[in-house]
Amino acid sequence: MKAIRLREGKERSLLRRHPWVFAGSVEKGKADAGETVRVESHDGQFLAWAAFSPLSQIRVRAWSFDEAERIDAAFFQRRIRAAVAMRARLAVASNGVRLVHGEADGLPGLVVDRYGDILSAQFLSAGSERWKAVIADALLAETAALGCTRLYERSDVSVRELEGLPEVTGWLRGDGDSSVTLREHDIQLTLDVAEGHKTGYYLDQRENRALFARLVRQFGCQRVLNCYSYTGGFSIAALAGGAAEVTSVDSSGPSLARAAAHVALNGFDPARHTALDADVNATLRQCLQAGRQFDAIVLDPPKFAPTAAHAERASRAYKDINRLAFKLLAPGGLLLTFSCSGGISADLFHKIVAGAGMDAPADGYLLQRLEAAPDHPTTVCFPEGEYLKGLVILKK
Question: Which residue numbers are catalytic?
């Protein structure tokens, strides 16, 4: 077994069971991409079994901190079984569930979602790539009782380039139609795991969509604006909550067409929904110039800041759209605003939104802080896993 020795003092993160070791912390040792290595402190103490990635700045990702454990097919079966069992205990109200959430489940670089009978997986690291065939077999074995019979790969993400890996998509196990009808709480949505965003859809917003339906009903919101709407999940939630007029804004015509189809699928009057193929920032400004007001606005933009290096530019973008939203909200209106950027902390996001309110100028009650659904867990030892953050604000 090849060994990787860390520089003096660089063992602290692994001793705290944080799974990453950066390139600058490695004193000596190398291995092939994804190869399992023994990670040792400067004085030779065992720290972890890990996957080595010679091209990534995250040079080592820990599989296990137990020296007696072996990284083999049985290891991956155990980890996947535990992850699936945890989701079963959550009793998720949907046939779309995140079953494996990377580092949080002790499987760095692996993301797996269930959509009906299809599993959709992303192999994002050299380690998960090396064990892909073993992982695929274990996934189907451990989800057979759920009725999962097929596995589609959605490793078409730019982060693989950092690992020296090409983007890959296609069936890993099974084949056939990749379209699914997603049932969550009281609504239905359709998707195609081969073409949808991420692994097929934004399962992380499931509980926030359900919350929005309840809030729209509770506060009697009639005019709703859903920005960066994608296929209209929050729009359908607003209609389910009793909104009279819902406008979905997105720059993707096909996504908006699916949003319109979702209105019909859920039995709502199409006259209550408007799909607008346009730039969100420009639309917010046009609505302001036209003197329009809304009772609720959702801002769920794409990732403006993938890393902390992009935080300053992203902060300006977040502040601008939130400032405009504050101006467009009627008194007593609701703002649900989100950031999925790993480079923007929850504390920084709150400060950005507060700054947007000051510039508007507007104030509001912070009703609730939001995060990803429970099947996308953050662990105590890996706070970096907390990527989605949101605020519910009631404008004064």
Answer: 340
